[in-house]
Design goal:
Blueprint: H1 4-10, H2 28-35, H3 43-55, H4 59-79, E1 85-89, H5 99-106, E2 111-116, H6 119-123, H7 125-128, E3 136-141, H8 147-151, H9 154-159, E4 167-171, H10 183-192, E5 199-205, H11 211-223, H12 233-237, E6 251-252, H13 270-273, E7 275-281
Parallel strand pairs: 1-2, 1-4, 2-3, 4-5
Antiparallel strand pairs: 5-7, 6-7
């Protein structure tokens, strides 16, 4: 694969990097794309995805609900809290509206940095870089498990002002970081680099409402070579330790700034949602 930094320096009119895809192996980003009805996935992703759906038919609802939570969180952060900078890690394959489209609908000057480590996401990164002016977007080909590489990236440092509040978006990604990979430490390291007044928006799948089904989902992912950690309420709430978390606190994402009553998502059961989430503020003056 071509070096993404060189590609970014070349600008949008430069040639895209050569993408080396392992289409014979399922990948979380492409499985998620399959769950939300996307077309950027391969037989291995669909085969693994179908096995997940067989064990937990509502997983497609959970995936779509997480995407809707992202939309609502970005909109609230931009419109209600005045956040103009977003660091979206675990971006996934572009699916409009993306974070920058929502934020820039509130303020065209909003800036967004996307981070992912899937070659398919890199192949589609140009869709994430179509920014409104005077706003700006950038893409980093990097891994959540290496915060230092993300925080020192030229793309990040040239796009975001880390002296001003930033919204750290970790949507439906932490269940792919098992406990032995230091999930809480990773989130803390990222937050420590952001100033007071910054926010964390995070969602994570839970087995609290359908333990048997989600246990089978974990086993299915493991069989595909993908490690997961589905967490209970206390384990998800721990990500927000030290942050100011307004009502309703860490709760099912369907109860956070809920969907309109006439939305089809409003009729989903707790088991179909099966994800906790919240938005928390780093204390201190902005």
């Amino acid at each position: 694969m071509a070096d993404s930094t060189e590609w970014m320096k070349a600008g949008l009119d430069g040639p895209p990097p050569r993408i080396d895809l392992r289409t014979d192996v399922a990948h979380t980003a492409r499985m998620y794309d399959y769950f939300i009805g996307g077309k950027d996935n391969f037989p291995a992703d669909r085969e693994a995805g179908d096995k997940v759906i067989q064990n937990a038919p509502f997983v497609t609802h959970a995936a779509r609900a997480n995407r809707r939570f992202l939309h609502r969180a970005v909109r609230q952060l931009a419109a209600e809290h005045g956040i103009r900078q977003f660091l979206d890690i675990g971006t996934g394959i572009p699916t409009s509206p993306n974070t920058h489209e929502i934020a820039q609908a509130v303020d065209p000057a909003a800036r967004v940095v996307y981070v992912d480590n899937d070659p398919m996401v890199l192949a589609h990164a140009r869709a994430l870089l179509t920014s409104a002016k005077p706003g700006r977007t950038a893409y980093i080909d990097a891994d959540l498990r290496d915060p230092a590489a993300i925080l020192s990236s030229p793309q990040l440092l040239q796009t975001l002002d880390l002296d001003q509040p930033v919204a750290l978006m970790l949507i439906a990604i932490m269940h792919f970081i098992p406990d032995d990979q230091n999930p809480y430490g990773l989130v803390d390291e990222l937050l420590q680099a952001l100033p007071a007044g910054s926010f964390l928006a995070l969602s994570q799948v839970t087995h609290d409402y359908a333990p048997d089904e989600w246990g089978a989902v974990e086993a299915t992912y493991a069989a595909a070579g993908i490690r997961t950690k589905i967490r209970n309420h206390a384990e998800v709430a721990k990500f927000f330790d030290g942050l100011e978390v307004p009502a309703p606190g860490v709760d099912l994402i369907s109860r956070w700034w809920p969907e309109p009553a006439d939305s089809p998502f409003a009729a989903l059961t707790d088991a179909e949602i099966s994800s906790y989430g919240a938005v928390g503020r780093k204390p201190g003056p902005a």
